[in-house]
Structure formats: structure tokens, C-alpha cells
Design goal:
0% strand; 167 residues; single chain; mainly alpha
Amino acid sequence: MATDVVELILADHRRFEELFRQLRDRSTDRLALLGDLAALLVAHAEAEESEVYPALKQYRRVDDEVVDHGAEEHAEGHQALLALMEVSDPESEEWESALEDLVEALNHHVDEEERTILNDTREQVPDERRAELGRLFLEVRQERLDEDCGDLEYVRKIARATADRID
């Protein structure tokens, strides 16, 4: 199993994209898929913010402002996720609109993170450190998943807690 933090983050990004494709399909169990997405998205963001982002700030050529902006975009993603989770009818236009808002916010973040933070990490952070960060990322992500971090009440809590990061 890969432990390079860049590869692990990229794998999660591809899983988000797959979940978005499935969520757009009205014939799927959208609420179950949303639960899967919520859990992975929250666990992923919290693992990045607690282990990866602070470590990357130690490297001169990894831009601190870009890393901080990534955390702001996580907050925006939490808000969009909460808005979707609070729509009760997955067949409604309101749900469709909230899903597209989440997709747009997440795709923007994924694109920026892959072009900036992850490229800088690949170029500037030694292999051994990326592997160490990968192990820490996986550990925290799994802890959050085990704590049911995709639960609506938990998402509400983190959305409130991170709202001040949004410009």
C-alpha cells in the first residue's frame, strides 16, 4: 500500500470525483453515497490540516499562504457539504443545486491543491518525510472515520468552527 502523502491525497481526490459521479445519478442510493462522501471528505480535510499542512510549512519552497488558503477552502467545502446534508429530499431541485455547489467548491480546491501544494510537496519534501506524513495522514483519517465524522451533527460542528476562515 502506498504511503507517500501526495499519492494518498490524490487517491482520495479521485474517490471524491467518483462519488460525485455516482451522486449525480438519480438511480443510486444518494443518501448512502452522501454519507460516504461526508465521512471521507471530513476525515481527509482534518488529517491534512492536523498533520500535513503544518508540516509543509516547515519547507521554505512550500508557500505558507497557499497552505493556509487550502484550509480556507476546506472550510468552504464544509459549508457546502452541510448545505447539501440539510436538504431532506435527494430528488429535489434544491438537492441538485446544493450538490453542484459542493462539486464546484471541491473541484476548485482539488485543482488548486494538486497544482500548488502537492506539486511543491513532491518537489521539495524528501521521500522519507512524505512517507512519514502519509502514515500520519492515514492514521488521523482512519481515527476520524472510526469516530463517524460524516455524521450531520459533526459536520454542523466543524462548519460552525471553521466559518471564520472564509473570506
